[in-house]
Amino acid sequence: MLLVKQVSKVYEGKVAYRALTDIDLTIESGEFVGVMGPSGSGKTTLLNLIATIDEPTTGEITINGVNPHKLKKEQLAKFRRRELGFVFQDFNLLHTLTVEENIVLPMTLDGKSVKEMKQKAHDIAEKLGITGILNKRTYEISGGQAQRAAVARAMIHSPSLLLADEPTGNLDSKASGDVMEMLDAINRTERTTMMLVTHDPVSASYCHRVVFIRDGKFYSEIHRGSSRQAFFQKIIDTLSLLGGNGHDLSQVRV
Asked: What would the pLDDT profile of 104-158 be if each residue is shown by its tens digit?
């Protein structure tokens, strides 16, 4: 479904900076994969390349057999709207719009009818437990509700791939758990392929497997198995071997 082949990224400047070196990553359809590593390891760079926010210096990325980096501007905009969903740490909701208007934003860009948009917004809001806040503005709701609204917006057009960059970074442990439970449920029921970039071992423990990168290179990979608690412990152990600063890792424990 997602194939990252020998991808490197070098940022040119007075001193060239190599953010990624020869990264290989395959994510099968329906998989939920986490990417972890210390600050500056290149994990957000990798996500940005897959999200087509940035372009690889060398190597190739294909999503459902399409290399989005070879598409023309208009085709790429359509591809991103239809194939990709995005969830960010700071929610990226527009404060001038209601929650419902934020959720249907991707559909307005595709010129869908108001009736269809309202129906889809209510269907997804019901699934995610946010029907009661659809008419509220973003400043009237909690962080956890805002992130649920952001997930609803990302899922409204049933993307093939959902990309989440530190989606629990601004949330307390209760709201973080709720958001991760929700992503886990979407992955299981909708079979949406997901890639999660996170510092938080608790959030990562919801994934099927976690890929670790360090200094822009692949470091190791671990698989979940049947116990989330045991997987969480394996993530902690791998992170301690990986090194990095103490603040790179969440202090939360399950």
From this structure: 887 777 777 888 888 888 888 888 889 999 999 988 999 889 988 998 999 888 8
The string of DSSP letters for 63-110 reads ETTB-GGGS-HHHHHHHHHHHEEEEETT----TTSBHHHHHTHHHHHT
- Non-local CB neighbours of 88 within 8 Å, separated by 6+ positions: 150, 164, 165, 166, 167
Backbone angles phi, psi at 100, to 5 degrees: -60, -45
Residue 248 near residue 200, CB atoms below 8 Å: no
> Does the pTM exceed 0.85?
yes
Give pLDDT tens digits for 157-191.
889 999 999 988 888 888 899 889 989 999 998 89
Burial of 2 (0-12, 13-18, 19+ CB in 10 A): buried
Residue-wise over 57-92: b if at least 16 C-beta within 10 A, else e? bebebebeeeebeeeeeeeeeebbeebbbbbbbebe
CA–CA distance, 210 with 190 (Å, rounded to integer): 21
